[in-house]
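Forwarding these from the shared drive since the link keeps breaking.
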Amino acid sequence: MGGTGRPTLLYMHLHILKGRIHLDSRSTCRDAWLISHISGGHMRAWQRMSATLVVVAAASSPALAAATPDDATPPDTLAACPAGTVGVPVLLIHGTNADVERSLGPTRQALADDGRCVYGPDFDSTRPLSESVDYFAAVVEHIRAVNGVDVIDVVGKSQGGLIARAVSLKFAGQQSNPIRNLVTVSGPHQGVTEFAGSTNLNPVALLVPGLPAAAHDMLAGSEFLTELDADGMTAPGVRYTLIGTRTDRIVTPYTSSFIDAPNTTDILIQDGCPEDLAGHLAESADPRTIDLTLNALDPVRHHTVRCVANDDQR
């Protein structure tokens, strides 16, 4: 990226189908996802399915430049909700290598159509999750202050879902939590432990320079997750709705998206709609996933959840 001093990262997707590997260049960007190692002994596990891995190549520098708070939308630039909006404000937190439009664009539009006030600040999804949690905690406090409200609703997709839950735990010691409803879509709450259905693949076997801290934080057993969940995975007073899909090939196993706790509702989109096979990326525009999110935030207004066949397993 000219003039920034940051390396340009080339994202390539490995499509492994019927034992053949195909590379295609999709985009240049500054985020990264997990690096998986495939040795000859592990190739059979990949040949049994069509999978996508993200391979990161630094094109101009041997390491990623350190993320700074300047990469995120300053909280104090977020204006008060316009007059006429209904309900409490909604904060959307996007996933890795994305923005709110790509992660939760249709959900944002549906909320706006309802008259809700929606915030979707950008942030650097490569930074350590602890930094992102601190940032979004400040965002929550600013939204409350500028609007004069006690609580807000939060929706997070993928990494954004884990960040949202961590923010709710950060406020757990307060007399009342500023988060009322928290909805996550395929958030890696339990951490990622499997790749392409195999537990034998080491996700950090190829430690390239600059592998983002966020990727390490989302691995099962990471220091971040261990410390986060030391006193429990949920905060009192928050209603959690955790949505996941059986066809998820990024947050694996897909059950990592769920939590067993009294104040959580775990929803597999295939329950009651087996023909909806939307994968991790496809969930962003999946009608059922969107309806489930709206239902969790306002079950009176959105009591109907559609079942629409979806074969997009990306």
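-- next protein --
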Amino acid sequence: MPVTVIVRTDEAGASTSPSLTFDGPRVVIGRGAGCDVRLPDASVSHRHATLQVTSGAVTLSDEGSSNGTFVGKKRLSARAPTTIKSGELVRVGRVWLELRIEERPATRDLSMATKDIALALVARAMRSLGEEHVPYVRVDAGPDEGAELALAEEGRVYVIGRGDACDLALGDADASREHVQLVRRGGAILVRDRGSKNGADLEGVPLSDARDVTWKAGQSLLLANTVLVLFDPTLSALKSIEEADDEPLADADVPAPPVSVADAFGERSASKAPPAPLPIAPPSERPRPSASPPARRRPRGVQPGEAGLLVVALIILVLSLGGLFWLLRT
């Protein structure tokens, strides 16, 4: 029985909220890196709650968390499984979740997907605080020491080399014009050699021009006489949040529950009224048949005045035919 966990990050609805669909027997929710649903908020315990899926039922248990697990406004007792219905709202710490129990395909590569969601939540919080959250490459050693390249656009190919058209143009004479390329995909940075003359090494391992390699934050990339280091402020913040102690949550800091998908759908269905029926008079206003059928109209006979006109017309017709006959004989 697939279970979808929607991380409610908005009050308007769940259409823009991240979600994960599981088809296994257990889903661990918490702040720790090993959880199936990673929620980077200090009010969420490292291992906060667990969903158990059995034949025909889904239960939720609090794992002895600091700030409790709530189904709606009801706080669950620690380690006491409670049956969950599809569409119910669950709060762990200050984070609201919506649980959907319905047939849908499981999320691909769940470990990567839950990490990407955690990073996206941290990046959103950092943006709201005005903090830098975009991963970037810094020249750690070489002629261009201190130069940086921000990898702001996901999916874009960034090129590093000696050419002026490169995204990070190096003054290293031994670097190729287009030495390496970088692509940001989700929470991963992929690097590849572009057929350079002197090659490039990532932590001592030569890069290939035939495949991408994941470049992790903090690792060094050597090309010619230049050393590049990748920095990811969002990943660093995520690690700090995951390693922090639980933060006590005051009642005043508890966010209001959002509208569930089921409720929102119900409202939309109610607001979309069916087409109005054709206007039909009620029974009391409909015309009733009379007691007797209307009399038929009898054929109208020839009136006296009309008979005289017919006689005159016949006389004129006979005279005309006689005159025509006389003309033809002469």
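Helices lie at 110-128, 233-243, 261-271, 304-329. The domain at 3-129+254-262 is CATH 2.60.200.20 (Tumour Suppressor Smad4).

- D.
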